[in-house]
Write a structure and sequence with these properties.
Number of helices: 6
Distance between the termini: 29 Å
Shape: globular
Mean pLDDT: 93
Oligomer: single chain
Length: 132
């Protein structure tokens, strides 16, 4: 689906999302489509996953729109400093889930420092060996 189709569908649900700092559902849908295309992940499916994980974007912290590191017995989860950073981390994680041959060296953008760490060599090792 396109970002516009995702937005139109979400608006039709009449759910009031609790998005940070002026971010709109249209902005978020666009990020999912853009980052999905960059990472070879279907952005619309990741958007749907996020709806489930966040109660239609009403319950999340730190632009973590997919509940990375959040569970019933866990404290917190990963916190991202921007919507793009959170969506990007989700796409990178989904890519590593879905494609066992994916490697950090083949990604078009650097790995999420929040999720994989700030040392590029260690981050690549963690991504390449699916540390989560």
């Amino acid at each position: 689906m396109t970002a516009e189709q995702l937005t139109d569908w979400f608006v039709s649900t009449k759910v009031a999302p609790n998005l940070p700092g002026g971010l709109t559902i249209s902005d978020l849908a666009r990020l999912f489509i853009e980052e999905g295309a960059l990472h070879g992940v279907k952005g619309d499916l990741a958007f749907a996953q996020s709806i489930i994980e966040t109660g239609s974007f009403t319950e999340f912290k730190g632009a973590n729109f997919s509940g990375i590191g959040v569970c019933d017995s866990c404290e917190g989860g990963y916190l991202f400093d921007s919507a793009r950073a959170g969506v990007r981390a989700q796409m990178q994680l989904l890519r590593s889930y879905a494609d066992p041959t994916s490697r950090a060296a083949n990604l078009p953008v650097p790995l999420s420092p929040v999720l994989y760490g700030t040392d590029p060599v260690d981050a690549a090792r963690r991504f390449d060996t699916f540390f989560l």
